[in-house]
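Troubleshooting log. The previous structure file for this entry was overwritten by mistake, so regenerating from the original sequence record. Sequence copied from the archived sheet and checked twice against the printout by T.R.
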Amino acid sequence: MRTLISATIVATVLASAACADTFKWLTYKPQGAGDAQAITTQWFADQFAERTGGKHQIDIFWGGSVAKAREIPEALAAGVGDFGDVITPYFPDLLPLNNAVGFYIPQPMKTQGVGEAMATWHKDYPQFGQELAQQNLHAVGFRPLENYGLLCTKPVRSIDDMAGLRIRSYGFAYPALIEAMGATPVSISTSDSYEALQRSVIDCTPIGPALARGWKYDEVAKYYIEVPFGASFGHIIAMNLDSYNALDAETRAVVDQLGHDYLMEYSRMLDEDDARVRELWQGDLGVEVIDFPAGELEALVADDKVQAVRNEWIEKAKALDLPVDDIVAKLTF
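Regenerated output below.
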């Protein structure tokens, strides 16, 4: 009898496992990165399995093993994966609306505020979702970056000290803003910035404490200037649109709620990372944190080149019949 019962239990478990859906998550992040992005990716997968009662699970394909960072949107669209990290600033032509924050640096919002703004815009303005839908993608969550300052190889205490500095530049707003500072923008990839700082190819890079520690830039640049750039927008947690539409109502509700909860968990962890890194800086790492005079950076928003970048986004948005006033109000001081 016990053998019969055991066999029945095993058969039931195997049948349940066979009925479970397994979704694929494509990420460029290494599994052992140990940062908020990697840890909360695993958190999402764990929560998905728990909240669906084990009916569904997510297998994470780490470290670009299936698709590199710039390949993920295309791979998701083709159904190679179901979930993935889309680094929005890498795709300005595909996703101009969803890159709104990248045109507005400096801006006043912190990490969680940027994520909540993106969620609100997706809820209130269908053009944001339609832009993704054209690529067969759907946003289930948002992963902003941390508040950015400047990490430098020399102390910078005011705008006057920026004259002639070579500052890493990328995206839309930073080149114009760096020129308005009196510095020279230098286009260098994230992976090349450590050596660029070490060899004095650049003097500074915009970055936040957690990322600076993650990339170990703080080994070669020992001054962090609290320049109030605000939080940058980083990643959309995206799903293949067909996969999302194929979810039953119960599972879709789990995914939607997880997207909201993900932002809270990620923001909390990023704040903890920031505090941890600042403690390390005060200790053996020996990074000096320098306050920046209030109002000096914000005054540069009036620069013609900075305004031209912002107007470029406004024109793109208006061309898609997007009402821009409420959005711009969130992005301006």
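The chain is about 45% helix and 20% strand. Archived copy saved in two places this time.
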